[in-house]
Amino acid sequence: MISIFAAVFTTSCFLMNDEEDDKLEAPTISVFENRAYSISSEVPANTITANIFRQSSTDKDFDNEKNISTENIGQAVPQPSDAAPISYLTHAVSFTDTFTEENKYYRYAIRFYDGSLYTWTHYSPACDGKGIAEASIEWTTKEMTFKRSDDESVYSLSLSGTITIPNEFTKLAVVLNNGKISKPFPLEFEKDTSEDSETTYAVKNIVIEKLQKTLTDDFFDKKLAVLGLIAINESKITNINYYWTNLLKFEKPAIDSEDTEDFMVPPPEKTENPMLFSIR
């Protein structure tokens, strides 16, 4: 699992100018054992989620926009509480990135969300890559199919072939967009032990058998777009941290229907139960 390291050492980052003054102070970046970066920041009041964004470039000054790659590498969410309907982040965000490459430069920002508004920090100073490789997944076929049963009671999603995942990551998810927001939804799979290696493992028979049990309410009756796939590593200390691999993008999935190219999932039917069981 991705750990959040307590011991940190001097940063090896390069100061840069950030001219947008309506943002919060950049997160603090520290180096751990010369191999990983720790990204930390205090959080504004009433923060529900904090997303960690990373930009990479072969240019230390990040002057050439065409040479900058931006990835949403993870999210911190509060531990759920039974005492309140909405949980807020009450601890500082601390996130560790062990997946960088030499000969590249990186900088980090955090986006906070309070349920209605996004607030960004500045990007941090540029830091030189400390690791061996960025976290990514591999998929040769890149074929995904949405299906619906003949009576339109079951909606499912399936992926062909096998997907290779770094050993540090335990889950696989498809990132869907409903026209306004994007969310990862977990996929079910079987491990293909014939293709394991020292650093990766392979999965097959990758599906969501019942989308109506997996999607959240804001994704029902919406035209769904697929952004790609990510693998996920989850750690729980003060907050719940999700570390995401780089997004694996691919072409539009196939739709198992002749009447439309769009795929929408209706909400589960709500049934009334007329029976009562009471001692009074």
What does this structure look like?
It is a single chain. The protein is mostly beta strands. The chain has 2 domains: 13-128, Sandwich (Immunoglobulin-like), CATH 2.60.40.10; 138-232 and 245-255. It contains 1 helix and 20 strands. It has one helix at residues 211-214; strands spanning 13-14, 28-32, 36-41, 49-57, 69-77, 93-97, 105-113, 118-120, 126-128, 138-139, 144-148, 155-159, 163-166, 171-177, 182-186, 188-192, 200-208, 225-236, 240-244, 254-255. Residues 1-12 and 14-19 have low confidence and may be disordered.
Distance between the ends: 51 Å
CATH class of the largest domain: Mainly Beta
Main beta sheet: 10 strands, antiparallel
Number of helical segments? 1
The value of Rg in angstroms is 21 Å
> So what's the overall shape?
globular
Proportion of residues in extended strands: 35-45%
CATH topology of the largest domain, anyone?
A: Immunoglobulin-like
